[in-house]
Amino acid sequence: MSSTKDRLDVGSKVTLPQDVDIRGHVTIGTGTVVHPKAAILALSGPITIGASCIIEENVTIINRSPSPLVIGSHNLFEVGSHIEARSIGDHNTFEVKSRVSSQVAIGSFTTISAGCAATAAGTRGYTQEELGDLLGDDDEEAEAGLKVGARAMKRTPSGATETILEEGEEGEAGEGGGEAVTAPSAAPVVTLPDYTVFTGSVGVWSGQGRLQEEALHAKHLDYLRQAMSPLASQLPSWSKLDQLSKSNKVVLRDAFAKDSKRFDTYSRHFQGDRNKDISVLLDFSKNLIDEEIWATLLSLAKEAKVEEQRDAMFNGEQVNASEGRSVLHVALRDLDDDFKGKDKVEGVDEVIPELKHIRDFSEAVRNGQWTGYTGKPIKSIVNIGIGGSDLGPAMVCEALKPYAKRDLDAHFVSNIDGTHMAEALRVCDPESTVFIVASKTFTTQETITNATTARDWFLEHAKDKKHVAKHFVALSTNVKAATEFGIAKENMFKFWDWVGGRYSLWSAIGLSIAIVIGYERFEEMLRGANEMDRHYASTPLDQNIPVILGLINLYYNNFLGAQTHAILPYDQYMHRFADYFQQGDMESNGKFITKSGERVQYQTGPIIWGQAGTNGQHAFYQLIHQGTKLIPCDFLAPIETQNPIRGGEHHRILLSNYFAQPEALAFGKTEEQVREETTSKEDLDNSFLIKSKVFDGNKPTNSILFQKLTPGTLGALIAMYEHKIATEGFIWGINSFDQFGVELGKVLAKKILPLLSADAAKVDAEKHDGSTSGLIKHYLANANKKTSS
Ligand SMILES: O=P(O)(O)OC[C@H]1O[C@@H](O)[C@@H](O)[C@@H](O)[C@@H]1O
């Protein structure tokens, strides 16, 4: 029957499941959501659907006439509605199982109520054949349609209305039970006036509530876009990658031999456009990809709508849907106001004033204006926090040590193990120490306990509570709890719920960084991160460094069975970098539930680990080279060292290892090569020895070579990994920005704590499992013993 060629033109942000029946020339506008099992059939002329429409399950939209069927924007087609209208304006609602015939033109703001049929035909009713044509071919439905149609027709506006409209006058309210339409089936088009409510009795809507209705429609669309994202494994490129991973076995040795330009093809250079010193080269040529795999990975990113989800994040939309929050750590480093969408989110306008607060305080501590209760300048700071309130500042203070104020000691106490606090206090002087209590929630057991201990210790010396104000500051979103702890208002540094804990070093949580390296350097780091943010937000996928890193890792994780990913910085200052991204990646992407509430059918976040080169080489590289596991690795190194001792020889040796390891991993050593190198006859006869010296090679790596570990470059590198993590989460369809997985253990620990001062009978009464009870009872039985040594 189709006389038009199949052609589908889809705008951005359209949700279109695979099982929608689309025939002929169909155009779907931006942001429209089509549900599964809908049918859009341009059987003769084309169908054009505008923006932000919702087309629910089992809706059929048909154009049997050669002229185009143009449908406007913001229309809602509810389940089972059957639409063959001549044209449709904007903001209309077609309720469940409503029908519109091809001789009806719908204006705007019209509602065709559930089960009603808007037709131009007369009261004579329809023959079964006509109905089959008009309302679909299911007999039973046609029967129902006849009854509904007949009832509704009796109440449709009279033919007079039609004539008036044709003369260009305003449509009128039809009176319920008005004259029947008498037009035969070949009658001219009936145009329903705007605001008609077609409920069986025709009325004109006052238009009141229109804004609410529009807002509801927008919410409905948002909800659907989230809920309807298909599982990544249902995307066409996913199946293709599955197949390619089995059929295209990439052998790096051959791939490089065949293609002298492989390095050029698979490497990208990033340079800051405001801070030109930020220069990062990513070489991803030593990965198990070929042209087809790479192109399909890029298509997967498109199909998974990575760009749209990224834009939604930058735009301040509530992409952390489970907690109903925006995700705007990028706003914390957007000092030149590059991303406008963020401004609508509450608190964003407080970022700059809060930075000033950080500047004033950090400068006062650094230049000695801020003194302790006896007038001594501050010599030590102790950051008390855990997770995101510890790892970021601790990692950065180590990484940027060359910029640190060396006569100021920075301690980071996180563990509830009293040892951690005791060792820090041992080297602190209460008169010259500032405690920074860092906790987004200000309820974290470890942090609050450690802070209380620190305050008790301080008061033992200072005696008077009023001195607390000189020695304790709080970094938190929970002003109330911080006040209750006794922190003075002016010593509170706030941030906002749209800053996730593991993305918070850019906020007030970075106060210790600002104190250690100075505010100017802290800001340089923020700006460096913003350079990467702008790159991520606007660079095409195949040039986009965080996207590339995400796709490469996803390929190993989902198609080649890799369970872990190693981060290996050849820079001693970055020795905590892998620890930091252990939280950054594993807390973000260690999830099995998608945003639509389904369980994933595939692997999500990898296990992240690693340590600074070359130490790792003498510890675990054996397994990477010759073990049985596939471990993709990122090798990072600076071109310039901060410490060019012995004329830079240390650094050259370090870099020679940095270059050698990925080469060894990629190309290995064959048995033939081992034999060629072996001179002793005895050794040559020892096949066990010969085989033990074989390296299979083909182990994938990324090499990330940056100019120098400056604050700007570090900021860019951290942001690069943050966005790599987000990209993967977008593709897997999970929420990378909540962390409910940390809760259960906390709750159980709170229940167990009282048992540790109780007796065995109480433990039994609490009904923990046999193992947990057994362990607690063993503890209780031995808790009062004192070991002599
Ligand atoms: O900063 P507070 O609220 O103390 O949380 C500290 C840490 O707690 C953990 O359980 C996680 O939720 C982390 O994301 C968070 O960084």
UniProtKB/TrEMBL annotation:
One of its GO terms (biological process) is glycolytic process. GO terms for cellular component: cytosol. It holds the Pfam family PGI. InterPro entries: G6P_Isomerase, G6P_Isomerase_C, Phosphoglucose_isomerase_CS, SIS_dom_sf, SIS_PGI_1, SIS_PGI_2, Trimer_LpxA-like_sf. Residues 166-185 are annotated as: Disordered. In the cytoplasm, catalyzes the conversion of glucose-6-phosphate to fructose-6-phosphate, the second step in glycolysis, and the reverse reaction during gluconeogenesis. NCBIfam families: PRK00179.1. This is Glucose-6-phosphate isomerase.
